[in-house]
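Researcher: If convenient, please comment on what follows.
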Amino acid sequence: MHPPACIVLLSDTLDLGFLRPALARRCPGIDIRTPDRLGDPADIEAAICWNPPAGALASLSSLRLVQSIGAGGDHILRDPALPRAVPVCRVMDPGMAASMSAYVAWAVIHQQRHFDRYLASRAQRRWQEEPIVPPGRHRVGLAGLGWLGADCARVLAAAGYDVRGWRRGPGRPVPPGVAVFHGADQLDDFLAGCDTLVCLLPLTRETSGFLDRERLAKLPPGAHVVNVGRGAHVVEADLLEALASGQLAAATLDAFVDEPLPPDHPFWTEPRITVTPHIAARTDLEVIAAQTLENLAVVRAGGRPAASVDPYRGY
């Protein structure tokens, strides 16, 4: 029988102490440490992370598991000193898919149905009807068709939108009626048919800067961009330029290179950008705790967790 786990909480941007109660409920006697109270690093089997300090994981000689608190591992994999033999796991939470789909549906509907204008009219006590376009005449493209993207496609298709998706290669099934585009050869055709483009890509070397001047120019004029991936998917200057020229009519952004978004950032004062503070999908704390301990049990038994990130693909 294994002793209770010894786990360290590592983040440069968040206080992960909020995980303590959930971990303790799942594993009485668990030893939870932080960088300021590390004790003997050789005791630590697992690290729960969000933007961990560079080099911190390499200093843990007994490390057997690195657990992200989110659906991606890019914030961990970018550490050049990361021990490559240690599995990095992401959270796979069914509730996260529901939250993401609800946010994306809101972002699409809010802009497509002109609710921003209705809110402005309401502030002025003005009864003003805006043009109504049936959802079947509005094309929504999802860049990224993993488990989150596929669920967003399902929800948007059920709402009557004309939905298409793009991914690197063949993958999980998508809902009936959703057109699927594959690879670099079909990317231009995909972009040309997106009245709204939703970025749900994992952040890798290939997808960093995905929303740049070249790709934004291939969207229909007046398109709407929604980014619920990572802040580094957006080339910020190119996005602002596309809005100023009218190539884009609007952007809804939930992830940023610098978080919290600095008060003097130009996104705050650009009226065509809607900013939300990285809240599109949040994972239940009980799910993070449960999956961390389940993944550690798999590793202790000599296996590799199903939620492990491929360090070469980045997801």
